[in-house]
Amino acid sequence: xxxWWRPLITLSVIxxxxxxxxxxxxxxxxLKFAVAALLVYLLRQLWQERRLARWLERGADKPAPSDIGVxxxxxxxxxxxQTHQSRSHSELATALGRFQHAxxxxxxxxxxxxxxxxIEWSNPASHRLLGLSAERDRGQxxxxxxxxxxxxxFLNARDYSRQLNISSPVNxxxxxxxxxxxxxADQKLLMVRDVTELERxxxxxxxxxxxxxxxxxxxxxxxxxxxxxxxDMEKPADTDLKHYFGIMISHTRRMQRLLDDLLxxxxxxxxxxxxxxxxxHMPELMRELAREAESLSRGRHAIRMAIDSDSWLAGSLQELxxxxxNLVSNAVRYTPEGGEITLRWFEQNGHPVFAVxxxxxxxxxxxxxxxxxxxxxxxxxxSRETGGTGLGLAIVKHILTRHQAKLEIxxxxxxxxxxxxxxxxxxxxxAQAEEPExxxxxxx
Length: 444
Hints:
By secondary structure, this protein is α+β, with helices and mostly antiparallel strands.
């Protein structure tokens, strides 16, 4: 009834005046009045409809016409509804914009395909991984742009539970995991993820298991063979026993070193064990490392020590000594007799640095990025002859990472190598009061 009462009152007033005129015996005047009043009423309705049509044509950027009565209510309600719709449209556009920005920021490739496998949209990551362009390739069939037979079969199978591993069409060195996800009524999402690093880690894990098995199999085979030989001998000679037991002890110690290094790695990788920030007396530790190098060298190399800073280092003494000892033992192990090994402690651009330089055979550049991998060896047979477990540099890397430090390797084949442990400046402790040390010492 809220709408009808106003037009009914207007029509009732017209009818009442018409009846009064009719009752006054002036029928012609009554009819003229009724016709004129209804015509005015109709023209006003048409005028208001025209105002409404013009306002709707101009859109929501103009205010609604103002009026009284029924049309005033209509204009007010329509303006309120349009304002609400405009606000909803703005919120929806904002939400869609956020969704698009989020999809564009995702590091995985996302491609929206229609029911015919045509590209409707793709994010920037799909350009990096698949070479697709959101503007250029829109509307193209995806299998026209990615022609690998494995991918085409995967796309045609429509098996949303499957995942496909392929090489990137723009970079064969990148491995991708591809998956289809149903989207909307007839659309599909093509999800693409870079799994190069995951596959590399998985390959390292497989190599690790294989290498551990291989490293343990050789000494176990040797020890087991000698035990069987001794068991079969009725009266073995003392010289034979001494020879056999010496070999078994050597291989047993090799297994013990390997297991010790594996346990050390396991402990370093555990997040439970925090780094203890002790004040490490680096000049004193340098002297210990020089004595250790001389002991390992047994006079076959010239061992030099250069202490260019009296500063100390904040960190775990046990872990740092283990890391530095591995670098020193590697230098002794792989430097030919008569070569020179230099241990150096210095500051570089405010960063404390421990470096070991040797005059060994050097390392080719293609091997340097992989040196800290477990069991990675340039020359496997030579590494075994020198007694290495293949885990030394992996241990060094983990220890330095725990100390927010990095390992820098510089090497020239035929001239030697320098392994530098570079620590953050905040781990540098100002020099403590002590007797001055010589800057260059030849250890004998």
